[in-house]
Write the structure tokens for this entry.
Amino acid sequence: KAEVADYIHQASLETEIERLSTEKEKTGVFTGAYCINRLNGERVPILTADYVLHTYGTGVVMGVPAHDARDFVFAKKYGLPIRVVVAPPDWDGGDLEDAYLAEGTQVNSGEFDGLSSSEGLQKIADHIEAQGWGERKVNYRMRDWLVSRQRYWGTPIPIIYCPECGEVPVPDDELPVVLPEDAEFLPTGESPLALHEGFVNVPCPDCGRPSKRETDTMDTFVDSSWYFLRYASAGFQDGPFDPEAIKKWNPVDQYTGGVEHAVMHLLYARFFTKALRDLGLIDFDEPFVRLFNQGTIIYQHQKMSKSRGNVIAPDDYVNEVGADVVRSYLMFLGPWEAGGDWSDSGINGVARWANRVWEVANRDSSELDHSPVNENSVRDVQRALHKTIKKVSDDMDSFKFNTAIASLMELTNTLTQAWERSDLTSDAWNEAVSNLVAMMAPITPYLSEELWEATGHESSVHTQSWPEWDESLAADETITLVVQVNGRLRDRIEVPVGIEEDTAKETALSSPKIQPHIQGKDVSKVIYVPGRLVNIVAG
Ligand SMILES: [Zn+2]
């Protein structure tokens, strides 16, 4: 008994986190007592152990060493029997090397043998309830959340402390409590609100006696846990959010953030959503439909850190090349989910692109009407434009910003070259330039707005609808090539106009209709007659 008391004292000196950790060595001591497992009538030894918490369930748990990682380690250490009751699919009846946690088939379970473990769980629970030995219970691993912070920036906690009435809530018609704009920020360790006489000293809402306002503010997670509901109707005055606007805009289609959001914000926001759903205020279960984690921007192949001295301050670059270029470069320097390595030459390349777009959009297109038009050139620019609209639209939808920008750069080059040839109609030029500027609007909002005006448009580029592509205009023009093997016609293939000789030959050789005719043979020669045929000599 003394040993048990001593052990309990030792364990009480550890924190719950230490005790719950799967890393830490589990300890325990046999109490000398047994209980009877009603399901099979067997005696079960009772031990006291440091990894069992009184806050979890009743504080007394049934050890299941074969199917719980901590129980397994504990049982090994103290030589307790490890009885398999859920058999892994390939189990040979021998000892387990580790706790088996997945689904399996029940064994050593009397009348419940042979059931799948999930079915068995329900059947055993049914049995226990039918016998009146106990009932099902959901265990929430929830703790209280201390939401007050000693900070200015946060939502004020609407409570007033009256010397007579105690804690009095601010009346509804005085909500929300608004932060004063003239607070002084002094290094006192207290919220600046506590030093603001006008904010702190208020009459008691109930009795009018001089009282003090609460000066702590709420953790910003309290706000971010439901701001996506308020955003749908930020001007709504009759409640936290307009139910009609929620129906239209929520749940949020796309959530993006760093991986660190995976735990805190998503957990809180989902919890609030489920609580509001249970209250009948919203009718969806999850606040965010899709999650996309962006990668990290590194520098000189290392994570940026002040101690390494390799921190890039965006403000310096914004001053030098503008916010549009910095933003475009961040989108361009790598796949969005992977991040990338910041380089000065990289951002300069993007700055040059922005300058080229500026030049292109400021050309006087009427000059083109004085020179001869080449219809093929017009068609080429049109095709390039529609291909780009298609590519950028698809890329934007799937967060492939780097390849979207690469396509826009290509289109810019196509236009620069066309201007030098001076063989387009002004209409074809204007159409391509306007769409280029419109597609750039989400990437370079300031530049695009300027150029939208410079290209003769009146309303804002940001109120335009997204450009649409025409599949037939985006399509490559094709020709039919005849493919012969040893002079006999074997196939006809569709290829783009102007296909390169090597590509034409490869396409012909890999055609499914040609394969059987050359399989196992030596291809000694492939002859290409441009625009007409490919002849394969094989023997
Ligand atoms: Zn009072």
Notes: The pocket of zinc ion is lined by residues 162, 164-165, 204, 206-207, 209 (CB under 6 Å). The mean pLDDT is 90. The longest strand covers residues 28-36. The two ends are 94 Å apart (CA to CA).
